[in-house]
Amino acid sequence: MAEERDQTGTSWRNLPQPEPPEPRLEDGAVLNGEAKEKPTKHESVKCNLNLLQMLKAAESRSPPQWRGRYRAEESEDGTSELVTEAPKTGTQIQFTEQKPKYNKRSANTSRHSSSGSISQLTIDSYSSVCSDSKDESSPRDKHQKTSKGFSDFCIKNMKQAEFGRREIEAAQQEMPALMVLRKRACGEKPLAGAKVVGCTHITAQTAVLIETLSVLGAQCRWAACNIFSTQNAVAAALAERGTSVFAWRGESEEDFWWCIDRCVGAETWQPNMILDDGGDLTHWIYKKHPGLFKKIVGIVEESVTGIYRLYQLSKAGKLCVPAMNVNDSVTKQKFENLYCCKESILEGLKRTTDIMFGGKQVVVCGFGEVGKGCCAALKALGAVVYVTEVDPICAVQACMDGFRVNKLSEVVRQADVVITCTGNKNVVVREHLDRMKSGCIVCNMGHCSTEIDLLSLRTAELRWERVRPKVDHVIWPDGKRIILLAEGRLLNLSCSTVPLFILSITATTQALALIELYRAPEGQYKQDVYLLPKKTGKSSPLIF
């Protein structure tokens, strides 16, 4: 057979045979008793001239900065050796044995950029610097101090104060009523001498209210009324400015009552005004510190749940001081209860479940102002909304607004979502939960966490499974799952946010109610529950 030759006439058999590849070893490994040396700065690969030509051709199609990397050198044994050089750019190539090097000058330049959109927050993000998930220790076990040495507080992480201050400053832009109230009343200090103990949601909006009360002359100590609604960064910012705050997100039940007790049980400080949301603070003072009512001038209550408890005390003759009902004020009912819930219910459900509302069958328990807002928002997105209501007037209103009014027991089996908005206890009980279909979402938009009978779900035959923050699956023995949001607590403040502008009106109403009670002549208000004077209530939105 004729011998095969290439185009130059050279026989294929006479070409040098490629050497077998050397085994690749880690640094310091030993082969046949000889230690393998560490790789040099330039890695060399033996190859023939044909391979070099192929690499040169490929290199010509590369960007300019990557050209000129390959060259051939003749080694001692007479063979061609291909040498690879690092690209000629300002970027340093990192090898595995080298420690990474950073350009300090470029980092400093980015921190002090003239662009207004680049800030320290873009370099050291909130999540990377102040993450709470890595810190599992209880704030009660820590001893923290502010930059000025103040330590009468208990929060999650003092390092978050800077970020919380930015949250508060941003909230001030959307809360003009409180800012105007500061300017109008800061000169006369209408709350001078007032010692206000508060138990509300600790968010950026509430922080603007607390600092407004301080500007008006009051001293404040604060705890959270909900274990899930506290913004830790905001609590840190309040503490940094000298406010005694005892709250953090994710408190246990024991922590919740401990924080309230720290607010009212200080040895050198006794409150003379109460600002409550839900009645827990008032209840604790009656139970543990009843002697404080000798100096307390009055109570301002925001929620319907707290108002129920105050009326019960008044009916039993146990209400020791006058109380102002902010919940039933025209500003609270017509603005926050309606419009705030109308916007925040959708965001809370979307953030936790990613649900599509179109075509879903939703049952809203209660058609007060909160229920009206929820129904309107859900109907606008295409949901089929059912209403359960015990008040005949509200039930007729729901019917005239185009909603189907039924008993909960009649529609619960077909419901995709069940929302409670009543402020009452045990609205949804175990019987209803047993009849729900698998995948039904259950949540609460009322203040109290007892609207859904959760105790009946803490049994041996039911299994709880946490699938994401604030979302639990309650699993029945047959595999049925009920999706429970925020453990039955207030959905919007536990899982999302609320409109700042609307809360500005309510917060201003609370401040005016405190001023009304504190400055009222002695004997004007008896030991009873009062509605905020209509003239005072209407002045809240007029401040704009």
What does this protein structure show overall?
- With 544 residues, the protein is α/β, with parallel strands linked by helices.
- The chain folds into two domains: 139-332 and 498-542, Adenosylhomocysteinase-like (Rossmann fold, 3-Layer(aba) Sandwich); 339-495, 3-Layer(aba) Sandwich (Rossmann fold).
- The protein is built from 19 helices and 20 strands.
- The strands form four sheets. Strands 14-13-12-15-16-19-18-17 form an eight-stranded mixed beta sheet, covered by helices on one side. It has a seven-stranded parallel beta sheet with strand order 8-7-6-9-10-11-20, with helices on both faces. The protein has a three-stranded antiparallel beta sheet with strand order 3-5-4, with helices on one face.
- Strand 15, helix 16 and strand 16 form a beta-alpha-beta unit.
Structural class: alpha/beta
What is the CATH architecture annotation of the largest domain? 3-Layer(aba) Sandwich
User: Stretches where pLDDT falls below 50 for ≥5 residues?
Assistant: 25-33, 38-47, 88-129
Distance between the termini: 104 Å
Shape: globular
Q: Any idea what the radius of gyration is?
A: 34 Å
Describe the largest sheet.
8 strands, mixed
Instruction: Give the rounded overall mean pLDDT.
Output: 82
Q: Give the count of helical stretches.
A: 19
Indicate the proportion of strand residues: 15-25%
Number of individual domains: 2
Helical content class: 25-40%
Give the CATH superfamily of the largest domain: Adenosylhomocysteinase-like
CATH class category name of the largest domain: Alpha Beta
As for the CATH topology of the largest domain, it is Rossmann fold
Protein name: S-adenosyl-L-homocysteine hydrolase NAD binding domain-containing protein
Family: Belongs to the adenosylhomocysteinase family.
Pfam families: AdoHcyase, AdoHcyase_NAD
Domain S-adenosyl-L-homocysteine hydrolase NAD binding: 337-498
